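Morning!

This is the sequence you dropped in the shared folder:
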Amino acid sequence: MQLRILIAAAIYLGSYLPLSLILLAQDLDLEAVKRDICPVGSMVTLSCASPLKNPLWSLAAFAVCLVGMVVTFVALRIVRTPQRVKVSESKHIPADLINYVIPYVVSFISLDFEQGTKLIGFAVFLVWIFWITYRSGQIVLNPILAAFGWKLFEVKYTYPAGSGIFVGRMLSKLDIEPDRTYLQGHLQDVMVVRGEEGDASR
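The structure's back. Tokens below.
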């Protein structure tokens, strides 16, 4: 299953849900919080003093990332896994956190929604990282999935009808073990596994 660019963008943005929460927290106006809590609807319409300095931007960023996270789990759920593969070797590989962590570091360097030029520069940076990740076929390798039990494995495998040995990456909540047959489907260049052959829970 090849990802369309809009779905890929949603998955990418979903991986930054914690970042949107950090920016939301940094947008708090502590003086306004001490006075009164304003209803969310009034925050968005700016009809009362909000505990957020830029409620429209901070709440929108959080909402977009939340939708992206939901799209990620829906995409993983709807991937069909009709293909049987037998794993001969398996190695768990930690998620690559470098590209993922850099935007978090940037967010703490005096970045807020009132700094228009810095915000534009940060957006350009995120778009560039997204494009590199998308073109390299690694958009699904979302480190935040580890918090929900997903693991990434590098495996050697064979198809039942073939004799060739292939190398690939598997994303699964299961521990992928050698000499077992799994049902998998592709999401971009990554195999998604939800169960072993004969597992009715997949």
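Headline: The helical segments are 5-14, 17-26, 30-35, 40-45, 55-78, 98-107, 116-135.

More detail when I'm at my desk.
O.
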